[in-house]
Amino acid sequence: MKGRGRILVCVLAVVVLAAALGAIAAGGARDAAAASCTEAQQQASSAALAVFRTAMPARQRAFNATHRSAAARRAFGAAQRKRLASLVGVAACTPISPSDAPCSPELHFVNGTFNEAGRDVRALGVRGELKTAVLFVDFPDAPAVQSASALYDRLVPPAVDWLGAVTYGRLTLSAPRLPTWYRMPRPAGSYSIDFGGSPSAFTSFVSDAVGAAQSQVDFAAYDLLYVVPSVRIGHADGEAYFGSSLVVNGSATRHVVALVAPDVDYHVLDHELGHELGLPDLYSYADVASAVGIFQYAGGWDVMSDADVGASYIGWEKWLERWIDPEQIRCADRGGESIEVTVQPLESVGGVKLLVVPVSDAKLYAVEVRQQTGVDAGLCDHGVLVYTVDGSVATGDGPVQVMTASTAHDSVRLRACGNRYDAALGVGAGETASYEDDAVRVDVLSANADGSYRVRVTKK
Ligand SMILES: [Zn+2]
Description:
By secondary structure, this protein is of the alpha/beta class. Helices cover 27% and strands 20% of the residues. The protein has eight helices and 19 strands.
């Protein structure tokens, strides 16, 4: 992650998570007939419905035993029936058969793209719990001026909640509070970590940080380490480290992220974690000095591009990390083939999430639906997003490019969400309903009340 001197906006984690959960619940209840889900989700919701329905009479009897008011009893009964109707709606989703997913969106990677530093993206464990230490360090010449606990509260719980929402709970961080600043042995100015700088300088910095805390922190208990210094070291908002040469407590620590404090937005933690999981930078290395050019490829549509917007990793990356299942993907992989599918918003749980058109071993087009809710509340547009993923393009050179026919340049939204801020297709007034080039055609057929879209994708 490279810094660019923009004022950052921090969204409270509670709000983000509540909005995400609210959207999921409302989507299921509002338009159950249109919803689809995996077999496992359908079985789970059916089981929950059966349990609730079986216990309804006993619950009413228990309520009646302690409430004499007929009105109160009727209200309780009505609330129970309302809850039952909601569960019936959720359980009515259409299970997706794995046999409906005839192709895989695998890509051949060159230049380490989507597998940074040649590491297996699964090395960190893309599902389950990552035990994480967030270490705050200060310096003899730059003692901390705020409490480590307050900084923890601003950075860590929101980043943890963001990741839980984006991965549908499949990957979580457990990051206990280490509420103390640890004093580095050397002045801040003696460390020179900068964007694309020397790995040995980075290693030296992190080794000193670990050395400062190792009498009180058992680093062997953690999978992932963030180091947050009291002042910026270099210009980067954050820097992810790859390799196994860093020795901590006598053993190699593989997963380290340095964060430059105290002024970054919490999404930088999730951006750097993306690197640890193999994801490349989606902003332009060649245009880091340009407020507009830096986000020319993917704008604010992915936290690996413009982290300040804080939007989700794109759907294809979620598939790469196995947070989206193969049965949630549809492919048009034969020339002339058209598929017509209802695509559920990336922000909600379940349903078809991604349409894919492979055009070579290394490149594909992907289509997904984005809504301005939950972690994506900061987006400047919503609808059907079309983008390319090219595994032969190096990090920082645009391995993901959002497609758009629009040439809109509203300066406020450009500043808020980067280039291509209005790229999503839609069927509303003033919206563009189709995208077409030499390889694909994408038509938006309708927008549904639950936030899903009916989409036709054709491979030419
Ligand atoms: Zn980065």
